[in-house]
Fold this protein.
Amino acid sequence: MKNLVIIMAAFIVTKVVGQNSTEFPLYKNGVPNSIAAPNKENSTSRDNVIRIAKVSVPSLTIFKPAKPNGKAVIICPGGGYSILAFNKEGTNVAEEFNKWGVTAFVLKYRLPDDSTMIDKSIAPLQDAQQAIRLIRNNAKQWGVNANQIGIMGFSAGGHLASTAATHFDFKADPSNSDTTSTRPDFAILIYPVISFDSSIYNKGSKDNLVGVRASAKKVNFFSSELQVTHNTPPSFLVHAGDDNGVLVENSIRYYQACIKNKVLAEMHLYPKGGHGFGMNNKTTDDNWLERLHNWMNRL
């Protein structure tokens, strides 16, 4: 029955991905930081959202535009480091990028789990860094400019994207001998979890990634507003002021850290919209995707 569930999940994802896309394993020679265990990945669909859980075998799905403009974006769906909202904050967004000529990659990153990972806290960052390396190394083949590779994330996926944007000098996988830069050239953070400061954090995301009793050192490491430097890539942020899932203070603190360190940053705050509005904040006529498109054209 477990195998049947996995096969069904794979079928659902393939069906959503579409004709101009290919899913492939993130790692060729085994997943680092792993514990041998059955693959329990599964997928459910409700309210037009496909939710993938128990991801222990990461993958990357490429969406190729008809006329690539050289830019590429790695998309990290959200889900509190518990599930991945794979179509709403992943494949649907990739299809929109393709309309702009942007080559999009949806990252199915590992979801922290002590039963399948030696150190669950570092596994998502390992996957994000590997995705950047992989795309940079295959840039010519995929019609991508190796110096125009960005990373995007929603909610907890935004936390992963911000971690990748601030910890590219940290080698998350010490066993990887590839010296290709893992610095993204820009970051797009949509209602992101940024901080593990208990006054503003999303408790579920924090506990799922680093555990309930994480050390102060680990909490600081994964609080991206504390890790911004002058080398942090240009960043674009979107958030709603009435977001009760991830407080808007998360984006504000990251933006302030960017300004302090003279990092180019643009932030759009909406009074309403709550959490998880995806590509369409129904409370406003303003389209944040249009603003993102304009911003990317200026990079």
About this structure: The longest strand covers residues 103-108.
